């Protein structure tokens, strides 16, 4: 179902990466947050999808590389728990994000308080980005407990 939301993304390339700090307000859950994770790679790009589970104070970030004339696609469907925040962060700002500092999110590729099926598909400049699924009180929505959601992230031509 989420793949259908991202099919228009089509052409591009993405890579997986994860890292983060570990403090009480904002800690990375890393790859441990992912269940039923699958990676589909074709000649024209990569789609990463699965189910994530985040406790209050946790986030997981997906590293993506976007080539010229391309876009990012992000799909989220909440399964249980409260809303989740979705932030797209430029690579040069990821360390500040990991530290819980103010960062300029890519506004047209970020959304706070997602509690129903949502797709964000926008053009993006060439470069490294991070897409974070966030259940922390540091930015946006105050956590209401643990969350489980189906997510998909893709990079490609629009």
Fold topology:
Elements: H1 2-6, E1 27-28, E2 34-42, E3 45-54, E4 58-66, E5 70-80, E6 84-90, H2 94-98, E7 111-114, E8 118-124, E9 127-135, E10 147-156
Parallel strand pairs: 1-4
Antiparallel strand pairs: 2-3, 3-10, 4-9, 5-8, 5-10, 6-7, 6-9
Please, could you describe this protein's structure?
With 158 residues, the chain is mainly beta. It has a single domain, classed as Jelly Rolls. The chain has helices at 2-6, 94-98, and strands at 27-28, 34-42, 45-54, 58-66, 70-80, 84-90, 111-114, 118-124, 127-135, 147-156. The strands form two sheets. The chain has a five-stranded mixed sheet. Strands 2-3-10-5-8 form a five-stranded antiparallel sheet. It is globular.
The overall strand count is: 10
Largest sheet: 5 strands, mixed
Instruction: Give the spatial strand order of the biggest sheet.
Output: 1-4-9-6-7
Radius of gyration: 14 Å
Helix fraction, binned, reads under 10%
Note the beta-strand portion.
over 45%
- The helix-and-strand class reads mainly beta
- Write down the overall geometry: globular
Overall tally of structural domains: 1
Please provide the ordered H/E string of secondary-structure elements: HEEEEEEHEEEE
Report the CATH C-level class. Answer: Mainly Beta
Uncertain spans: 3-23
How far is it from the N-terminal to the C-terminal residue, by CA? Answer: 20 Å
Alpha plus pi helix count: 2
CATH topology: Jelly Rolls
> Architecture in CATH?
Sandwich
